[in-house]
């Protein structure tokens, strides 16, 4: 399995004004879509309510996204313009992991985010997704299999994605054990919340 750069973790951020620029440097929360369909479906309403307030506070426009299509991946800016495309043939591997983060926005709490490293011939993409991680994991794993792309799963997520438990319930009990298996790949026990 491929080792992940330590700076990809230490510089990870929750809200970034220019996510497309950061996604190649560090783990960045970004909307994920498949064939122009936002996933998970609940993200469709992210232009309303709290998401709109959050974007206004942090100076963001509409959400930027990474779109997975049959021929590769597209980086789409907040004006819905495709600004970069990577062909499937240039993707060497996709590695799934988990990042644990302490947040203190309302009250201190721990949450877990799915980390996705896409290794390409031109460098890596570092994606974070915290909403319905199980769905994203399953859909992206299926996409990789369809495209014949190597899947790396150091946290053995395939074995923990069954049952009715939520993402947090699953990892509250097993995260420390799972991250110990991936320590040689530079996964930390906890990532600091950086707001940029």
Explain how this protein is built:
With 196 residues, this protein is of the alpha/beta class. The chain has one domain (6-185). The chain has 5 helices and 10 strands, in the order H-H-E-E-E-H-E-E-E-E-E-E-H-E-H. A hairpin with a 5-residue loop joins strand 5 and strand 6. The longest helix is centred in the last third of the chain and has 15 residues, at 133-147. The two termini are 30 Å apart. The relative contact order is 0.20. Mean pLDDT is 79; it is low at 41-48.
Keywords:
about 200 residues; alpha/beta; five-stranded mixed sheet; about 25% helix
Strands in their spatial order, largest beta sheet: 1-9-8-7-10
The count of helical stretches stands at 5
Percentage of β-strand residues: 25-35%
Low-confidence stretches: 41-48
Q: How many angstroms separate the termini?
A: 30 Å
Class from helix and strand fractions: alpha/beta
Overall number of structural domains: 1
What string gives the helices and strands in order? HHEEEHEEEEEEHEH
How much is the radius of gyration in Å?
16 Å
Helix fraction by DSSP (H/I, runs of at least 4): 10-25%
- Multimeric organization: single chain
Largest sheet: 5 strands, mixed
């Amino acid at each position: 399995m491929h080792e992940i750069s330590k700076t990809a973790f230490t510089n990870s951020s929750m809200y970034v004004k220019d996510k497309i620029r950061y996604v190649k440097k560090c783990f960045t929360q970004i909307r994920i879509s498949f064939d122009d369909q936002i996933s998970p479906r609940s993200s469709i309403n992210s232009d309303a309510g709290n998401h709109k307030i959050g974007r206004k506070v942090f100076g963001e426009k509409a959400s930027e996204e990474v779109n997975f299509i049959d021929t590769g991946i597209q980086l789409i800016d907040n004006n819905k313009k495709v600004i970069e495309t990577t062909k499937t043939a240039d993707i060497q591997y996709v590695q799934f992991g988990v990042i644990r983060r302490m947040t203190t926005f309302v009250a201190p709490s721990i949450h877990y985010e799915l980390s996705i490293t896409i290794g390409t011939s031109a460098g890596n993409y570092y994606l974070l997704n915290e909403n319905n991680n199980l769905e994203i994991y399953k859909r992206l794993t299926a996409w990789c299999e369809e495209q014949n792309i190597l899947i790396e799963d150091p946290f053995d997520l395939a074995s923990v994605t069954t049952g009715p438990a939520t993402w947090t319930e699953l990892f509250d009990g097993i995260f420390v054990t799972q991250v110990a298996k991936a320590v040689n790949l530079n996964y930390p026990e906890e990532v600091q919340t950086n707001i940029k």
